[in-house]
């Protein structure tokens, strides 16, 4: 349950500092994890980014204050981090569907986003199939790209990268190069926030033991204990569903934690839209 407690501690820190500039480094420290892993787990659990949660919570509190206090709307706008009444009104209308002034006169409904409480759901209908394996370090070769995680850019850039790799036939080259212990083409996230805040290196690669072919780059994946989860069904829904189960059900109850090294999504050379598609998620644990 330490995982649940650390996530809740990070959320509580954000709530206690909603009126300030929130440091993601400090938030991640409260959760005892890296900025990248915290943002990733938060998004998987809530279907929104950390920034979106903070924005929604600020606008929720601003609406409450407008409806029950006599403070000037311009002062409330500044209090909740908006530089101009226009930018505040635009964001307010986008969330609530009405203007701040209409909120004050009770002429419309508002949309409230409440404070998050992390809980463990006991579910038995859908068991998770996984195994624990230990592997020595191995080499991957492929292509990589620096991707920003700010504002959910990674969720747009990574699918675009896969589209390019598939269109250029690079995925077929990688399947042919695959001669390592991990079979298939890999999607690999590597946290780079210690070099460039809020950035990851995303690799589309394969395990390859020989020389690095021209046009590709290489990296060593360190020796690890891995939790390997089965994924059954078409992409991307099946993969996203298992990720959410891992974060919301498996980690809170397993006693394991992220080891902090790269995790892998493993794709076989099959139709990604097939109902019978088999894939895997490899998570380094400690």
TrEMBL record:
- In Swiss-Prot or TrEMBL terms, this protein is called Helix-turn-helix domain-containing protein
